[in-house]
Every structure is written in C-alpha cells, then in structure tokens.
Amino acid sequence: MEIHIDLTGTRGHRDAIYRQLRAAILAGRIRPGEALPPTRELAQRLAVSRTTVSAAYDRLTAEGFLSGRVGAGTFVTASAAARPEPSPVSGVRPLPEWDAVPPPPAPFAPAPEFDFRPGVPDLTRFPFDTWRRLVTQRLRAGQADLMTYGDPQGLAALREEIARHAGVSRDVRASAAQVVVTAGAQQTTDLVARVLLRDGDLAAVEDPGYPPPRLVLAARGVRVAPVPVDASGIVVSAIPAGTRLVYVTPSHQYPLGLSMSLDRRLELLDWAERNDAVLVEDDYDTEFRYTGRPLEPLHSLDSRGRVVYVGSFSKVLSPALRLGFLIAPPSLVPALVKARYLTDWHAPNVEQAALAAFMAEGGFARHVRRMRKIYRERHELLSRSLASFADFLTPLPSSAGLHLSAVASSDCGPLVRAARRHGVRLYSLGDFGVGERRHGLVFGYGAVAAERIEPGLARLRALADGGAA
C-alpha cells in the first residue's frame, strides 16, 4: 500500500515516521487488518536506514497498533482504530481555588540589563570552588547512605549546624531535635498548614507582604485575611477573631523593610497565647544587617511554644539549592516530619551533607561576613542614589536584607512596566498588596553589581521624566 510520510525539515526521522503512522492509523487512513510496507521498501522510499523504519514499527507494535505475522508482514491491529485521538480539551478541571493562583514567574532569558529584583542574591559570588570540593568529597567517599532515601527531618549533621548557627547569630535557643530541613518558607507554610489548619480555618498575613505564603494557604482551602502594617509592624488589633495562624516577617518586613518594635512583638505573642494561635516567623535575610543590633526574634521572646521560626539559605547562598529550615515547638515536630515525608520525603542528601560540612568548616560564616560587606556597600550606594528621585519617591528606613523600598504619591505600575521593556527589572509596592495598595517601588540590590546601580537608576529616571510614571 502507498503511505504518505513527509520527512521534510525533520531531524528525528524515526520519531517522525512513528508519529505520522500513528496519526494515520488513528484517523482511519490506514484501516485495521491492512498491511504496512516491508521495512526495507519503506526505508528505500524515504531514503533512510532500514533500522530507522524498524525502530518506528517496533514502537508501534509495543503500543499495540501493529502486529507481525511471520512470513506474512506487519499489519494494523483490530483494536488500533478504537483508540481515540487525545483531545486538546480536557473534561477534568482543578479546584476553583487554583484559578486564583497566578502562574509561576517565567525565567529571565536573557537576564535583565539592570536587575533590581528583591530577594535575589549575587550568584557570581557563590563559593563555587569550595562547594564543588565539598560535593565531590561526599561522592568520592562512596557513602551509600547519601544516595538512598533520607530522613524527612533532615540530615542530623546539618540540623546540628543549623541549631548552632541560629543560636549564635539570632539567639534562637533550640536543639537539633526541633529543626526540620525544608525547601524554604513556602514549604514551611504548607507543612504548618497541613498539621494545624482545616479547610475554612482562618489565617492572617501582612499587607503588604510576601505573596507565596498567602497563595499557599489559600490553595489549601484556608481563608486568608490581609492585616495592615504600620511603622511598628503588623497591627495586632486588626487580626480577625478566630485566626489560627499568622505569617509575619518581624525582623525585616517584606517588602517595606521596617523592623517590628519590641512592644509590638510582645503584643503579638500575647495575642497568640490568648487566641490559641501559631505564629510563623520568617527571618528570611537578616544575616545581612548593616547598622545596629537586631531586635530579638519572636522565637527568642516566646516562652509558650507559639512560634515556628523559618530560615532559608536561598538569600545567603543560592535559591537553586532549595534548602531552608524551620525550628518548631517540640509538640509540633513529629507531625511536621510526617507531613514532610508525605509531601516530598526529604531534601537532597548530598547537598545537605555538603552544606553541613561548609558550615562546620566555618565557610558559611565567612561567606556571610564577605557578602554583608558587599551588600552594605550597595545598600548605601542605592540609598544615596535615590536622592535623584526625591520629587516623587521617599525611601523607607531599612538597615538589613537585600532590598530597599520607597513610597510614592501615585501608581508606579506604568513606570515598572516601561522599565522592564527597557532592561530595568524591579517591582511596584502595589505588587505585594492585597487590600489597599500602596504606591511605590521595591529595589533589590543583591543581583545588581555596585557599578550598575547608578546607570540603572539613570535609565529609570529618564523613563520617569519621559512620562512613563
């Protein structure tokens, strides 16, 4: 029989032959019981090797479309025509909660010329040589236990180092038994919600605030209440009655950059005790503090076991590692470990072992000290350079982290969109609000080199003067 197969412009001839034969069978152009040309004949006609055609036939045979008869040839099976073509429209729909979740941000290819995104570290300063050595050492040691299923709570050596680091750097008093290694703040929020909240329970988040935890909670069927933030932190009196969980960033509020006052921290802890609620304290980037001594974390002030302390290595080392941690009251740890096991079992063992060694050798502390100096320089340069925007931007006081925010009197969305079209990547304060949206801009300085800050701001200034704002 004559079969039309077009290999024009194709690279994978075997796959092209397979796809076109399969489509012809499903469409009924080749009917059940009909014989296909011998492999040698079809190969000569298409000017390809016989092996290529045989491989396509073999795949169709394995999938039940064809059957071979010794001495007779290859035929379309009787059941092949009964298989429907996949429909581009599915009758299956996700829960409606997922319609409200925005798609993940697309990767930047190519990277923006001036990258002022918040929360992105300087990956050119990642200790590649040291990390390569540590990973290679663990692989060469042939530790079979690192190549199998691991402990959902995390590698014991890493949990010991995390507990020691949190105690020294942030006065978080906890043992390794209270540490659970996670993929970061989003997974921590999901784990805590799994073990404490039911569908319809109420949780509160800062407004403006970090969007992913709010989206995680909402996608789990939790009702999420945005709570305003003032100069002292989250407004405790505005937390709705019946709230079971509050997600906060007290040491360096995201995205405003302020620190929650001591009085407000004590008020929040007292509220949590009176309302039988849990506080998820995200201490995401306070390794980088440039002036003064940071206030104690909520966890250090908590004497009643109401705080789950969250830390991440994404801002200090690299988000690609997908390593973070939580420190929980002992009563929650067993359930959190079970939840971690049920979701994705455990963090990558080799990376955990390498990070534990990096911390034990003092490499992590040295890297933090080195990057703190670099980021302080950028923080100060950005603060000074924003003086050129004094006619419509007022920087908010901030002494830590990887970003700085400035408020404006009008919507900065048009300026942000124009800037992105011209190679300047930054965010509007309005991107982080839920209720009443604040006007302003959020400037990250982790991923932009010091010498690129002023040229980037000059381009932004030119766009603002051109009417983009």
UniProtKB/TrEMBL annotation:
The keyword Lipid biosynthesis does not apply. This is PLP-dependent aminotransferase family protein. CDD domains: AAT_like (cd00609), WHTH_GntR (cd07377). Residues 11-79 form the HTH gntR-type domain. One of its GO terms (molecular function) is pyridoxal phosphate binding. In the C-terminal section; belongs to the class-I pyridoxal-phosphate-dependent aminotransferase family. The keyword Transcription regulation applies. PROSITE patterns: HTH_GNTR. It comes from Amycolatopsis eburnea. Keywords: Aminotransferase, DNA-binding, Pyridoxal phosphate, Transcription, Transcription regulation, Transferase.
